[in-house]
Write a structure and sequence with these properties.
337 residues; eight-stranded antiparallel beta sheet; Glucose Permease (Domain IIA); 42% helix; alpha+beta
Length: 337
């Protein structure tokens, strides 16, 4: 029977040397075909592995490059943001310094105002030689005139130092401002109180004429020709001359009787009261509030009177007192600021 070809065997002789034993290996004939195939498979597998490793390497390299590019871009954005923040900080510092200068100018103005209020309310000294504070706009570049110098940006240390100094300066000025405002509030309260007292004190002459025909005190009564107490001052004048309220207050009486004629009584507070007698006509009513210097009637000779005049009285806590010491201002003078 004929032997199949793949069952045939080949003898492979390995001769190590002339005097050495010859090694004989019997291999199937089919191995001659299997060996190239195996070699080809190994080569193909190696190539495939190389390609796969190369692709993996390229993928990893691409991923790392993308990540690096993203990180670099993010760092660039962060650096740009920091530069913008630093520029804004420097700009804010310049504005803060300008505001600090304006704040100093306001403090000086308040100091001067405090001195003026102190003089007006008699609660302090007088202004030192009338010194004035130079006008300032806080050092703004638009009004500072020609400028020059280096354009080199400030360092971080310079910015930090300037911020610290400006903050300390503003803190000190804020404390000073608080003290000044407290003092000003006290002075304003005293000034307001002084102005109120001035408005309700009967310092105004009640008639345009300052001609006194009969003063306060004991006199000979023109009707009985006997000594009698005259509890006010008589001012001479022409019929229908204006009669003014000597101080701010409220009309408590506006009436007529046989002794006083047409008369008005005004209460001013703090125990002060003024009376206006013998008028020809009344221009206000009971319960009405009147201002200092407001016209309240027309001079006449009604009631117990010998001629045209105004009988004027000042009462303190219900007791008639001499009005003359109160009469220190004219109507026009009192209206001045």
């Amino acid at each position: 029977m004929k032997q199949r070809w793949w069952r045939k065997k080949l003898t492979l002789m390995l001769i190590a040397g002339a005097n050495r034993r010859i090694v004989r290996l019997k291999l199937p004939e089919i191995s001659l075909l299997a060996m190239p195939t195996a070699a080809l498979a190994i080569a193909a597998g190696t190539s495939l592995a190389f390609v796969m490793l190369h692709d993996r390497y390229e993928a990893d390299r691409t991923a790392m490059q993308t990540k690096f590019d993203g990180t670099e871009q993010q760092l660039q954005v962060t650096i740009a943001d920091k530069d913008a923040e630093l520029s804004l900080l420097q700009t804010s510092l310049i504005e803060l310094t300008r505001q600090s200068e304006q704040f100093k100018a306001k403090v000086n103005e308040i100091k001067q105002l405090k001195q003026v209020l102190a003089v007006m309310t008699d609660v302090g000294g007088t202004p030192s030689g009338g010194a004035t504070v130079p006008a300032t706009d806080g050092g703004s570049p638009s009004s500072a005139g020609p400028m020059g110098g280096s354009g080199e940006p400030p360092s971080a240390a310079e910015v930090a130092r300037t911020i610290a100094e400006t903050r300390q300066s503003l803190s000190s000025m804020l404390e000073e401002m608080n003290g000044l405002m407290t003092s000003l509030n006290e002075s304003e309260a005293k000034l307001s109180e002084a102005e109120h007292v001035r408005s309700i004190t009967p310092t105004l002459w009640p008639t345009p004429s300052h001609l006194v025909t009969s003063g306060f005190g004991i006199r000979v009564d023109p009707f009985t020709e006997k000594p009698a107490m005259h509890t006010g001052i008589d001012f001479a004048g022409a019929p229908n001359d204006p009669v003014y309220a000597a101080a701010e207050g409220k009309v408590t009486k506006a009436s007529f009787d046989g002794e006083h004629g047409n008369y008005i009584v005004i209460g001013h507070g703090r125990g002060l009261e003024t009376e206006y007698l013998h008028m020809n006509r009344l221009l206000v009513k009971s319960g009405q509030t009147v201002k200092k210097g407001q016209q309240i009637g027309l001079m006449g000779s009604t009631g117990r009177s010998t001629g045209t005049h105004l009988h004027y009285e000042v009462h303190k806590n219900g007791v008639p007192i001499d009005p003359r010491p109160y009469l220190i201002t004219n109507r026009k003078e009192d209206e001045k600021p």
